[in-house]
Amino acid sequence: MFTRLREDIACVFDRDPAARNTWEVLTCYPGLHALVIHRFTHWLWGHGLKWLARWISHFSRWFTGIEIHPGATIGRRFFIDHGMGVVIGETALIGDDCTLYHGVTLGGTSWNKGKRHPTLERGVVIGAGAKVLGPITLGEEAKVGSNAVVVRDVPAGATAVGIPARIIEDRREIAREIKAGQMGFSAYAVTRNEDDPLSTAIHGLLDHAVETDKRIERLIKLLEQSGVELSDELATADKFDPQYLNKIVD
Known about the structure:
The protein contains eight helices and 15 strands. The chain has helices at residues 2-15, 22-28, 30-46, 50-64, 171-182, 197-225, 232-235, 242-249, and strands at 67-68, 73-74, 79-80, 87-88, 93-94, 99-100, 105-107, 119-120, 125-126, 131-133, 137-138, 143-144, 149-150, 159-161, 166-167.
């Protein structure tokens, strides 16, 4: 018991630069309080004292702002930063060294019995406000960006962002994320300049459309300079307004 508690305190210092001393962590970190209470309620749940486990977890929810169902299975060195609004469902399975930020939901998408909540493998980081829904698996060292909605499996080492979440495949973004991890701080599972892949793709298409318009305008000028007559429709075509569309997709 005390070995686990020492591990939990140590992982707070590893992952939260605001932590100053052990007494502060023990008395002022609701994520640690919720985890300690959950270990007790999970033991009660496994020994058939389900009502008592639920009642104590209900008190824990009121006391910490974090709701962890006593049936959820949680590994070692699990860290919930800030914590307010975190919800972890009954059949969730969380591996060692995982990190959750405030507002995260590990929820279900079905009323059927059985496995209906996510599985997080070792080292998963889920950013603030993200929703991970259904009996899906997030592979080792996977990361979920803030406010993402994840409804499909995320491969090991991948980063998922957006609604619905998509896997980032841009090597530059992956390199930034790796570098942030090496520097010891990638708190919300996204880099400062990261964007939804769908939005990035749309912006790329808009940039391409602008360049295409410029080329067409140059061609029209060259044709006119060469004495080629152009139809009125071609000469007076509406101009493309990329700024307006950029505002829409931002």
